[in-house]
Amino acid sequence: MTASLKKLFVKTFGCQMNVYDSGRMVDALAGEGYETTERLDEADLVILNTCHIREKAAEKVYSEIGRIRAVKEARRSDGKQTLIGVAGCVAQAEGEEIVRRAPAVDLVVGPQSYHRLPDILRRAQQGSVVETEFPVEDKFDHLPGVTTGRLRKAGPTAFLTIQEGCDKFCTFCVVPYTRGAEVSRPVEAILAEASALAEAGMREVTLLGQNVNAYHGEDRAGREYGLADLIRALAAIDGLERIRYTTSHPRDMDDALIAAHRDIPELMPYLHLPVQSGSDRILAAMNRRHTRDDYLGLIDRIREARPNIAMSGDFIVGFPGETDADFEDTLRIVREVGYAHAFSFKYSPRPGTPAAGLGAQVPEAVMKARLAALQAVIEDGQRAFNSATVGRSFDVLLEKPGRKPGQLVGRSPYLQSVNVDAPAHLRGEIVGVRITSAGPNSLFGEMTAVRGDDALARMEAVS
Ligand code: SAH
Ligand code: SF4
Ligand code: F3S
């Protein structure tokens, strides 16, 4: 049996949801006799799970296909077949165009059709297949369950998609087009998956959604659950000690969810809550549907509920029409919030989005300078946040071997990487760690006899 297994090579681009989806595809294809490989040259099937969010991300796919085509041709001269598949958001956005531009591609499959992969593969033997309709059936009802053996190998943390798609239509963003309308998975399906994860040894689960705090699922009795209700139910699962969620929209941060940050100890004190810009004019042009003050007021309320919460965000510089004054507003909001971490991007016009058609596109050189200035301010904040943890102790979930022998790397409640001298058998455990030094991107610490006391709870918010 083992000898006849076919090899699958998967490369994942983009966000955590793509990472989750790649795992689900691997599980679905295991049923078709595929096992994964890290070696492209032995792959019978290659899947690129792609991202369309910015031009650079989308263009990467074509250079990647070029590289794979060479391998495909070399294998063909050895009499071996290689199927090339493009999945993910570029597949959804470009569809047929991909096969026209890159005829070596055998199958194109959008994110809502992964449950059809076995059938698509069969059809791809006869010629290229493009499947980018939004099917009426829900893929999650038709995908096989998560294979926990695969997860166990990866460590004690897992992603779990609970909501997909987006109805917000920010004017710069392709996600509503590539992922479709907002859909929440039913409560029982999520709880069952989470229980399986916990039984497989997962200590931490990150709930995923393009707009995860818009979650509104139902249980079998028809009772409505918001994200706060769902987190409460998940926290009751034995073995699940840490819960995180991403990505949230400020408009959907309701009172119940804020209260959950106060009341549920399993919910980690770290929140990714993108604001994109600090300028009201730009926020309006982006269709974010809130102001700078709304956002700052919201953060005040969240910090009142959970004083030690660490904030993270996303920013876009150079949105069409952004002036120096608008950009200054962005720098100010970053300083005011005091982010523990943040991502920042140059605006990239995306086909089909309203902002791409706006005049007043900001010149590349200006965007570049603004990005550098913003990143300097973000890094200052990140460094300050990390240094403030030195001398304090908290719980660290040990996830994987460290760089040096005898070391493990884990995560603090605030999602910082922490290097600790610890024996390998503690991998997967949560241990108390006292932080001894801090670098810009990671911390170093030593194990303490007791679990951490969340000493940061008593720390003033870093500003
Ligand atoms: N759903 C999330 C983010 C999805 S995309 C949210 O609402 O915040 C992740 C990040 O990519 C966004 O937060 C934004 O900062 C960035 N992004 C999205 N479209 C972009 C574009 N056209 N150009 C540059 N950055 C973009
Ligand atoms: Fe894109 Fe806005 Fe939806 Fe986030 S909320 S996925 S940025 S449209
Ligand atoms: Fe990219 Fe699609 Fe995620 S565009 S960021 S892979 S939802």
UniProtKB/TrEMBL annotation:
Record keywords: 4Fe-4S, Cytoplasm, Iron, Iron-sulfur, Metal-binding, S-adenosyl-L-methionine, Transferase, tRNA processing
Domain TRAM: 387-449
Protein origin, superkingdom: Bacteria
Localization annotation: Cytoplasm
Reaction equation(s) it catalyzes: 2-thio-N(6)-dimethylallyladenosine(37) in tRNA + S-adenosyl-L-methionine = 2-methylsulfanyl-N(6)-dimethylallyladenosine(37) in tRNA + S-adenosyl-L-homocysteine + H(+); N(6)-dimethylallyladenosine(37) in tRNA + (sulfur carrier)-SH + AH2 + 2 S-adenosyl-L-methionine = 2-methylsulfanyl-N(6)-dimethylallyladenosine(37) in tRNA + (sulfur carrier)-H + 5'-deoxyadenosine + L-methionine + A + S-adenosyl-L-homocysteine + 2 H(+); N(6)-dimethylallyladenosine(37) in tRNA + (sulfur carrier)-SH + AH2 + S-adenosyl-L-methionine = 2-thio-N(6)-dimethylallyladenosine(37) in tRNA + (sulfur carrier)-H + 5'-deoxyadenosine + L-methionine + A + H(+)
Amino acids binding [4Fe-4S] cluster 2: C166, C170, C173
Cellular component GO terms held in the UniProt record: cytosol
One Pfam entry name: TRAM
Annotated residues for binding of [4Fe-4S] cluster 1: C15, C51, C89
Cofactor(s) it depends on: [4Fe-4S] cluster
Record-listed E.C. numbers: 2.8.4.3
Leading EC class: transferase
NCBIfam families on file: miaB-methiolase (TIGR01574), MiaB/RimO family radical SAM methylthiotransferase (TIGR00089)
Similarity section: Belongs to the methylthiotransferase family. MiaB subfamily.
This protein's name: tRNA-2-methylthio-N(6)-dimethylallyladenosine synthase
Organism whose genome encodes this protein: Microbaculum marinum
Gene: miaB
